[in-house]
Amino acid sequence: MRLFWLPVLVLTVIAIPASLFAQKSSIVRLDGSNISAAEVDATVTQWMEKAHVTGVGIAVFDDGKVAYLKTYGARDAEKHLPLTPDSVMTAASLTKPVFATMVMQLVHEHIIDLDRPIYEYLPKPLPEYDAYRDLAGDTRYKRITMRMLLDHTSGLPNWRRFTDAKKLKIYFEPGSRFAYSGEGIDLAQMIVETVTKKPVNDLMKERIFHPIGMDRTSMVWEERFEHDYANGYDETGKSLGPERRKSSDAAGSMQTTLRDYAEFVQQMLSGTILDKRDQEMMLSPQIPIHSKHEFPSLSRETTKENDNIHLSYGLGWGLYFTNYGKAFFKEGHDEGWRHYVVCFDKPKAGMLIMTNSSNGEDIYDGLLRTVLEDTFTPLEWEGFKDSRELAHR
Question: Fewer CB within 10 Å: C terminus or N terminus of the chain?
Fold first, then answer.
C-alpha cells in the first residue's frame, strides 16, 4: 500500500532554461516515424504520475549524437528544487560498463589480458586476501579470467550478503554460464588496481571522465557536487538523501549526471572512446543467456523465450539482436535510483533514462515504446513491467 504522495512534483514539468538542453523539435524513432518534443514531454509526465516517480532525466540518441536531453520533476521534493541535467545522481550499476570500457583500454595496451587467469596478476594467492578467504580450498578460482568477470560468468554470486551463508562461493564452473555478479566486478577492480598500482577513481578520471568531458562525474562523492545533487526516493516517496560514497566501487559507486552519462553513451555509439577492434570485442556475444530471469542471479530456471533476439552478454553490456541491428543495454538499480540505457548499433540510436526513485523501473517500457518505438526489451528477463498492462490499471 502506497503512502501519501506529493502529486504536484510528478505532475509538473520543472521549467529549466532551454540552453541547458540538447533537443530538437521532433525525434526520429527507430521505425523512421517522428515524435514531437511536446509528445515526449507529455509521455514522460504521464508515466511519472502513474508510477509515482520523483525525478526523471532522459537523453535520446540519433545518428550517434544526443538529439534530445531533458530533465523533469524534482531533485529535492521537500525543498521544491528541480532536477537538472547537471544534478549529481548515483549511477548504480551504470557504473559497470564505464569501468569495463576503461579495462578495455588496458587490454588494448597489453596491460591486462582478458584470458589470463586473474590470480597470476596477484603477489599472493587470492584466498590470502581477507575479502576472498572464503575461497580457500576451491581451486576453481584459478580458472577465473578478466573476460569472465566482465561477462558475468565467473561463478560468483551477485553479492555474498544475499546468499544464505553470507559467504563468498564459486557456484558453478567458471565460464560455463551467465550469472550477474557485482562480486565479480569488485574482483576485477582489485586486479586492475593491483596491476596499475593506481586507485580506480584515478584511472577512471585519467582515462574516461576527463578525456571525454564528464566534468561532474567521480567514483566517490566530491565537495563540488553539493550545490546541485539529487536525493534518492523510495517507493513511498520518502527521501533517502544522496549517496555520499567515500570509497570507489566499480560495481556501482559512480556519481554522475544525465549530461555526463549521455556523453559517455554518445562516445560508445559513435565509436570514439575505444579502438574499433576493442569496441567490437566488447559488444560481441561472449555467452548466450538462457536464464528465465536476470535475478536472482543464481537461479537455475531456464527458458528459450529470448532465443529469437539472441539474448547474450558482452563485456560490461547486455546484448540482443533486432531488425535495427545489435542492441547493447545496461540497467542501474539501487535503493532510490533506477536507470536504464539501450542503444541500437545500426541506426546509432538509443535512449538513456535516469531516475531518483525506486519506482523508476515502472516507466521504462512506456518511455521506450512511445519515445523510441523500442518494443524489443526482454521485460520478463529483466524484471520490468509491461507498460501495456500498467496502462489499464
Answer: N
DSSP reduced 3-state for 205: helix
> CB burial class (10 A; 0-12, 13-18, 19+) of residue 313?
buried
Dihedral sign (CA 316, 320, 321, 323): negative
How do residues 323-339 score in pLDDT, each as one tens digit? 999 999 999 999 999 99
Helix (H, G, I), strand (E, B) or coil at 206: helix
> In the chain, what's the furthest Cα-to-Cα distance?
62
Residues making up the chain, counted from first to last: 393
Judge whether 97 and 330 are in contact, CB under 8 Å. yes
Q: Give 55's strand partners.
A: 73
Q: How far apart are CA 345 and CA 319, in angstroms?
A: 11
Dist CA 95 CA 249 (whole Å) = 9
d(CA 294, CA 299): 9
Residue at 111: amino acid letter: I
Q: How many whole angstroms separate alpha carbon 385 and alpha carbon 232?
A: 21
- E-state strands within 18-163: 26-28, 34-36, 55-62, 65-76, 81-82, 89-90
- Is omega for the bond preceding 157 within 30 degrees of 0, making it cis? no
119's grid cell: 590470480
Cβ atoms of 56 and 10 closer than 8 Å? no
Give the span between the Cα atoms of 55 and 127, in whole angstroms.
43
Averaged pLDDT of the chain: 94
Q: How far is the C-alpha of 250 from the C-alpha of 175, rounded, in Å?
A: 21
| Selection from 371, 378, 382, 289 nearest residue 62 by Cα | 371
Go through the domains of the chain in sequence order and give each one's CATH number.
7-87+220-240+254-390 (3.40.710.10)
Stated pTM of the model:
0.94
Closest CA to 342 of 309, 361, 364, 314: 364
Q: What is the pLDDT of residues 79-120, one digit of tens each?
A: 999 999 999 999 999 999 999 999 999 999 999 999 999 999
